[in-house]
User: Fold this.
Amino acid sequence: MNNRIKELRARENLSQLELAQKVGVRRETIVFLEKGKYNPSLKLAYDISQIFNMPIEEVFIFDNKNH
Amino acid sequence: MKKSLIIYVITPAVFFLSVLVFLLLNFDGGFQDIISLVSVLLFFIFSIFMGQDKIRSINNKEPCEDELSKKITTKASSMSFYISVIFWIALLLISDHTALPTHNLIGSGVIGMSLIFIFSWAGIKFFGLKNE
Assistant:
């Protein structure tokens, strides 16, 4: 699964820490997500999408090849 | 802040430092002493790192634990349990062919298990938890 968190965060002028605080996780989790080292829970994915006012599928792109 | 500093950094640091000093005072240069020293030093570094991590989280006003950290701990625990079972079997097989005293065998097993957990945790932190 790929995601556009880094790109959207830059567009919204949000730091990793600010985004982490908004969704109630540690900054490390945002780092892992941006590096593609972790796939979030549905709740976290939903919360992040809500911050960017976008549907989940536009923030997180499911890549079937990696499964 | 002060309370968390005491819980996460000072207590484990004092504990491991005392063990380290005790081991150094009774150090006779044997292989077993070196293994014990290195292990305690690793635990000391690990506890300091964990404590620093928690304090950084508190300072940043973010939770000390979240879904990722819980998953890393769970995965490291399950992985280290599996490896530890194999480690104990190997240790028992080795002990059949050597004159290893029981307390040394148990000590090696416990230190081995702790080290396996630390390495599993570090490995998962480094490689991440993809598609899980």
The interface with chain A takes residues 57, 60-64, 66-69, 71, 127-132 of chain B (CB under 8 Å). The two ends of chain B are 34 Å apart (CA to CA).
